[in-house]
Amino acid sequence: VQFGKDERGSIEKIIRAYGRVAYDPDLYQVQEEYLSAVDLVELSSEAPASSRERSWKLLKAAETRLKLLGLNDAQIQRLRIRRQVDPQLLLGAQESGKVWVYAEVYESDLSFVRVGQTVAIDAAAYPGKMFSGKILAIDPVINPKTRTVKIRSEIDDPGGELKPDLYVNVLVHTSLGDALTAPE
Questions:
Q1: Angle at 129 between CA 126 and CA 130, to 5 degrees
Q2: Confidence (pTM)
Q3: Residues 131, 127: Cα–Cα separation, whole Å
Q4: Are the beta carbons of 2 and 149 closer than 8 angstroms?
Q5: What CA–CA distance (Å, rounded) separates 46 from 44?
C-alpha cells in the first residue's frame, strides 16, 4: 500500500495518432485556381454583367473546393490577402523549412482537436528527436470505414529531415482544466 496526497492540478489529455509526411499537389493546384479566379473577378469589374457573373461563379467554385480540402474561411481569406500559393505543398519545396503532416484522429477525440493547436511529432527514423508545429486544417468529413478525421499540420523541419511518406507519431496535448488529482 502506498500513500499520497491529493492536490489540485491541471489534467492533460494526449491524443496519439499515426501520420505521414505529405505533399499535396492537389491543394496547391486548387489554391492556384482560386487566386486566378480572384484576379479574374477583379479584372472583370468593368466587363459586361454576364462575364462578371461567370467570374464570380468560378471564384465560388474554387472556394468550395478549398473548403472540401479542409481550409476554413479565415485560411481562404489569408490566401486571398497573401496572394501566394503555399510552396511546401509541392515535392521538392523543402527550402521553406516546413513540411505538412497528415494524421488520422478518431472521432471520439475530435472534440479535443482544433485548428491552431500545437502538435509534437516523432519519427522512428530519428529516435529521441521531436518536431513541432500547428494544426492548420481539420477535414469536414469523417471517414466512414475508419471512423477517423484527417488533420493537416504544418511542422517545422529546418534540417529537411522529414521526407515524403515518412511515418510519424503525432501527439496533440489538450488541457482538460484543473481538478483534484492523486499520485499515480
A1: 120
A2: 0.73
A3: 11
A4: no
A5: 5
Exposure string for 110-135, b = 16+ CB within 10 A, e = fewer: bebbebebebbbebeeeeeeebebeb
Q: Which long-range contacts (CB under 8 A, 24 or more apart) does 95-98 make?
A: 97/156, 97/157, 97/158, 97/160, 98/133, 98/154, 98/155, 98/156, 98/157
Q: Which of 136, 125, 128 is nearest to 163 (CA)?
A: 125
Contact 150, 143 (CB under 8 A): yes
Model pLDDT for residues 60-118, shown as the tens digit of each residue = 999 999 888 878 888 899 899 999 887 777 765 555 678 889 999 999 999 999 999 99
Provide the grid cell at 60.
Answer: 465560388
